[in-house]
Structures are given as structure tokens and as C-alpha cells.
Amino acid sequence: MDYTLLHTLVWLLPAVAFTTQELVRLSVSPGIVAECGKPVTLNCDASSPGEELSIKHMEWLQNGKSVCSMDTAIPNHTHSPSDFYCEYKQGQLSLILKRVKPQEKGNYTCKLHSNQGALSKKTTVELQECCGIAEGVRTTDRLTCTFKHVYPDGDVHWFHGSHNLSDGSVEQHTSKQVEEGGWLTIRSDLERKSSHGPYNCSLMSTTSGRHIASTLVPNPKSPGRVRSQQPSHKARNGVGSLGPIWTLLCFSVLLVATLN
Ligand SMILES: *[C@@H]1O[C@H](CO)[C@@H](O)[C@H](O)[C@H]1NC(C)=O
Ligand SMILES: *[C@@H]1O[C@H](CO)[C@@H](O)[C@H](O)[C@H]1NC(C)=O
Ligand SMILES: *[C@@H]1O[C@H](CO)[C@@H](O)[C@H](O)[C@H]1NC(C)=O
Ligand SMILES: *[C@@H]1O[C@H](CO)[C@@H](O)[C@H](O)[C@H]1NC(C)=O
């Protein structure tokens, strides 16, 4: 190849790329680290500063697989039974993930075909670390902690009071299960040695090493009578729910008032 031809090509190529970019623009929502179970909206906007833009096709793909397109977009999401839906209006295709789950994380690409050329843009969805439910149960021969709706993977550490039992002195067995949506259920059993004092288990993320959740395994009410297989301590996101107690209290007050 002679020098002038190469020289011309070097100058011509970026110019061609530049002109197509000038004609039609595509912008997508920035990458997001979403809270587990919360809705996520990914927008894709096509626009053209110059001539009339005629959109032939717009589509969202997750990790290379088609999720939805402007043809499958629905006007009223309230009727959609699935976990996501798409809306399309005037050059904007929005993908709405109703309750974001581990399976939905990854790379999302928006593709456009128009009278002014084809384009695609990428964005990402990541999930924050989370645990939906943590509960501790005490039975006659063992203590069990169960963490449900967990993301990502985690390790369970047991404590007796403030003493860390994860040094191998007490036998513990941990099992993990992948549930629908990519959530993990992590269960850990501890052989019971001493019957007294509060036991505690803590879930640490294997990726960040951060503490995701913890739960106290309650003491039995009287030492002689241990109720088995009865979840007696529950926590959601580490915060106890007072809702049902208040409802019960209000109901009782109402009942007493009515009876009087
Ligand atoms: C869509 O839902 C809105 C309320 O959110 C309602 O006003 C509208 O009539 C609905 N449209 C259709 C086509 O069902
Ligand atoms: C997303 O893209 C990045 C970089 O292109 C790649 O490293 C990663 O594996 C992709 N993730 C998925 C879930 O495909
Ligand atoms: C629970 O575990 C934490 C460590 O994660 C520890 O610092 C704390 O003392 C424990 N609490 C009780 C009541 O055992
Ligand atoms: C408990 O011990 C384990 C294993 O030695 C360690 O990885 C973990 O960080 C300890 N946890 C705390 C809160 O000290």
C-alpha cells in the first residue's frame, strides 16, 4: 500500500465514523448498583439533531440475549405478569425490572436501527450485598441459623457471647442452596455444647468480607423445656418487625372498647 493511500484512509476513517455519530445519538442510563428487590429502570434514548429520525428497531439485550424490543413493549405494565416489562414512546425504550434479583445482573445493551444508521450502547446492573431474612433456631441437640434471599455468597461465623467459635473448636456444618432468581439460602448448624449464654451467628460476604447480616439464637424460656423446630427469633434485614405486635395491640384495645 502506498503512502498516500494509507494517509487518505487514516484521515477518512475517523471522518466517516464521526459523521454517523453526528446523525443519530443513543444514550443509556448509567451503570447502577441496585438495592436487592427494588425496581430498576434502564432507559435508552435515540435522538437526532438534524433530519427526521425514523426508528426501525430498538431492543434491550441482557448478556447478549434479547430481553425486549419496541415491538414487544407494552403500554400498561399493570397487566404484565412477568418480573420485567418494557415501555416504548418516541424514541425511548425503557426496560423496567420490577424487583431486581441476582439473575438480572450483568451487561445490558441497547441496539438501534434507524434510517440514519445502526448503533448500540452498553450499561451494567450490579446488586448491593443483602440478606432478606435471618433466623436462629435452638433445638435439643443443635443450633441452626438460616439466611434467606442472600446475595452474593457468604460465610457463617458463630459466636458464643463475644467468643468467636469459627476457630474449629466446635463442629459446624454449613449448606448452601441456589433458589429461584439466583438467591442463595445459607444454613449453618452448630453442635450444642453449653446450654447457656447467647449464641450469635454472622454472615460475611465472601467477595467483600463485609458483614451482611447476623441473628441471635434465643435461649429457651426455661432450661428444662426446649421447643424444637420452632423458629423463635426472626429478623428482616437485621431490623425486627413490630408491625404485627402493634396490629395485635390495637385490635385488643378495640375489642376491649367494643365489649365495654
Ligand atoms: C393505562 O393505565 C393508566 C393508569 O395508570 C390509565 O389511565 C390508562 O387508561 C391505561 N391505558 C390502557 C390502554 O389500558
Ligand atoms: C460484562 O462485560 C464485562 C466487560 O466487557 C465482562 O468482563 C463481564 O464478564 C460481562 N458480564 C457478564 C455477566 O457477561
Ligand atoms: C454477636 O456477634 C458480634 C460479631 O459479629 C459480636 O461482636 C457480638 O458481641 C455478638 N453479640 C452477642 C449478644 O452475642
Ligand atoms: C471469626 O473467626 C473467623 C475465623 O478465624 C474470622 O474469619 C472472622 O473474621 C472472625 N470474626 C470476627 C467478627 O472476629
TrEMBL record:
Residues 218-237 are annotated as: Disordered. Its main location: membrane. Residues 14-126, 135-217 form the Ig-like domain. InterPro entries: Ig-like_dom (IPR007110), Ig-like_dom_sf (IPR036179), Ig-like_fold (IPR013783), Ig_sub (IPR003599), T-cell_Activation_Regulation (IPR051713). Gene3D superfamilies: Immunoglobulins (2.60.40.10). GO terms for cellular component: external side of plasma membrane. Keywords: Cell membrane, Disulfide bond, Glycoprotein, Immunoglobulin domain, Membrane, Receptor, Signal, Transmembrane, Transmembrane helix. Residues 1-17 form the signal peptide. It is found in: Cell membrane. The keyword Secreted does not apply. GO terms for biological process: cell surface receptor signaling pathway; cellular response to lipopolysaccharide; immune response; negative regulation of T cell proliferation; positive regulation of T cell proliferation; T cell costimulation. It is a single-pass type I membrane protein. Pfam families: Ig_3. This is Ig-like domain-containing protein.
